[in-house]
Design brief:
By secondary structure, the chain is mainly alpha-helical. It has helices at about 5-20, 20-30, 40-65, 75-85, 90-110, 115-140, 150-165, 170-175, 180-195. It binds fe (ii) ion (FE2) (2 copies).
Amino acid sequence: MTLAPHVGDALARFQRGEAGEGQTAKALARADLPAVDDDFRAIIHRFVREEGRHARILKGMLGALDRPPARRDWAVDGFRSVRRRSSLPFDVMWLATAEIVGLCTYHEVADALPPSWARSLRHVAADEALHLTFFLEFARRSFREQPGHRLALPGLCAGAQVVNLASNHRAFSALGVDRRRLIARSWRLARWAQRQLGLDVELAPKLPCGLT
Ligand SMILES: [Fe+2]
Ligand SMILES: [Fe+2]
């Protein structure tokens, strides 16, 4: 498989991001909150498995490019470090942010990859859409009395998107990623997610922007 070297850099970054997603989720499963019950723990268990599968899919792509996984990455490691310092509602908002930016980015990048890789990446994006609705539902039930995280969500997404565009700009150029569409989609999704957090009824699993 031959792709521009910067594309490999971006795939390595995505792989590193996927590989570490399980830890915060496991910590969530131990949180003392009404929404944390056996059903919640079962979903978290599935979430951790799925993120592990995403990491393996991306690792397979790196292998085909003859590249090792990244041992460090300023964007992923910086994001993780900020997240670890956040209080619980914001930690969940960071998880939702990662799903929003991740799934919008996978959709855009998939359009520019070989068909079999594109299919895999779209499956990953479909999982991320489900993860997003799960975290939103969890936050809606758990932090109703704390509006700060809800107000912050679009801002967190905008900040993460800036880092995403800056760290992957060479890869996005090589792939011809439509940055305007990426920004517009993730912004609309962030605003949709913010509205869902304020609802009194259970979330509809259908995402906007044709992203399900
Ligand atoms: Fe993932
Ligand atoms: Fe995810």
